[in-house]
Amino acid sequence: MSEIRGIAILGSTGSVGRNTLDVVRHLGAGYKVVALAAGRNAALLLEQIREFRPTLASLEDAEAGQELRHEAARLGTRLVTGSGSAIQVATCQGAQLVMSAIVGAAGLRPTYAAVAAGRRVALANKEVLVVGGAAINAAARRSGAELLPVDSEHNALHQCLRAGRRSEVRRLLLTASGGPFWEREAATFAAITVEEALAHPVWDMGPKISIDSATMMNKGLEVIEARWLFDMDPDHISVLVHPGSVVHSLVEYVDGSLVAQMGSADMRHPIQYALTWPDRCPGQSRPLDLTDLPPLCFYPPDPARFPCLGLAYQALKIGPLAPAILNGANEAAVAEFLAGRMGFMDIPRCLTMVLERAATDESVPGTHGEPGVDDCLEADRWGRETALAAHETLSLPRQGETGR
Structural domains in the chain? Predict the structure, then answer.
């Protein structure tokens, strides 16, 4: 790469944002941070401005931004604040690549703006495509923007797909750790407690992601993400339970060849892959010692114990906005479970009812025409409200009850 590549980071103070800055430090002079977007962490944003001297920074918290503005200007950085300020970072002049790492559906609008502007976008936020996949893909077709995955499983697929032509691909295989319950007896699932569901055997994650791992909805959302990211029919996307979490994903080609991507669990690897694409550079991740690995075991997921995975496939068949509805409904149901107002298996029951209504109700948002960003966000909102209404109206059994 002969010229300096400008980087804009959406969510610079979060985990992925901080790791991205670490990768930029490692890569050195060929990369320049031109813009940073943060939510409320003004103190950390100021530290990042002092080190990287971007031309533009944004802070969603307008009040905190007032205190930061003068110091940022002194350092040569223009600071914008308030709702929507991240869009200015996403479309900042001089940014060839935009790292999309704002958590949740809040990242959709700025990411859409970057795609519409024709920027190369590194996606570290699966909700952007789960909620807005139809709108993002339509914008990318119009602008010629390129989407690069940072989520480890999809980044692995992107690497494996370099081994052949797209017409030669039979299916994509996403690997899943299986969460804490992949070997637990199905008859006991109704009695699963919040504490048990939060206790992932390998990863230390936040409450929402931990519950999604326990229900395997996280893998369902990744199936949806893969459908939009690789323009692959859902029938050609499969999931394998791989408790060792060494193989990050695989691609099966029509001649029977399986190409797998393996590596240590270090987010800096997929981040650097996206930043340097299509080149590869020496990285910071520790190479795997193949002589010290446990046996590589793979198992099919059990649809009876993990119905949420099947619901993701069902949503993709209903229509382009059903995944957004499913995402909103799942977030609402998980919050109810965490609060002790819903049983573990009530989560898929609730989501099933929401999707049944989405498939038959003509008043569902965005049913007609090509959906835009507003339609996607409205569908997400509708899913949340419909899930809560279903839980309340139908008097679903509370945690610990056996159900009807």
Answer: 5-149 (3.40.50.720), 163-264+300-393 (1.10.1740.10)
- Residue 31 C-beta-side C-alpha neighbours within 13 Å: 21
User: φ, ψ for residue 35 (rounded to 5)?
Assistant: -155, 145
- Per-residue pLDDT tens over the stretch 308-337: 999 999 999 999 999 999 999 999 999 999
DSSP at 293: P
Write b or e for each residue in 1-11: b if 16 or more Cβ atoms lie within 10 A of its Cβ, otherwise e: eeeebbbbbbb
Residue among 174, 158, 117 at smallest CA distance from 278:
158
Q: Parallel, antiparallel, or unpaired for β 247-253 and 258-262?
A: antiparallel
pLDDT tens digit sequence for 276-318? 999 999 999 888 899 998 899 999 999 999 999 999 999 999 9
Q: Whole-model pTM?
A: 0.91
pLDDT tens digits, one per residue of 14-71: 999 999 999 999 999 899 999 999 999 999 999 999 999 999 999 998 888 888 999 9
Cα 225 to Cα 235: distance, rounded to the nearest angstrom: 14
d(CA 335, CA 338): 5
- The pair of structure tokens assigned to 314 is 């069902």
Query: Dihedrals φ, ψ of 274, to 5°?
Result: -70, -40
Q: Which two tokens stand for residue 240?
A: 């394998």
Nearest of 300, 344, 342, 326 to residue 211 by alpha carbon: 344
Helices (H), 8-125: 15-27, 42-52, 62-74, 85-90, 108-116
- DSSP for 239-267? EEE-TT--EEEEEEETTS-EEEEE--S-T
Burial (CB count within 10 angstroms: exposed 0-12, middle 13-18, buried 19+), residue 69: middle
Question: Phi and psi for 150 in degrees, rounded to 5?
Answer: -110, -30
Tell me the mean pLDDT in the region 159-180: 96
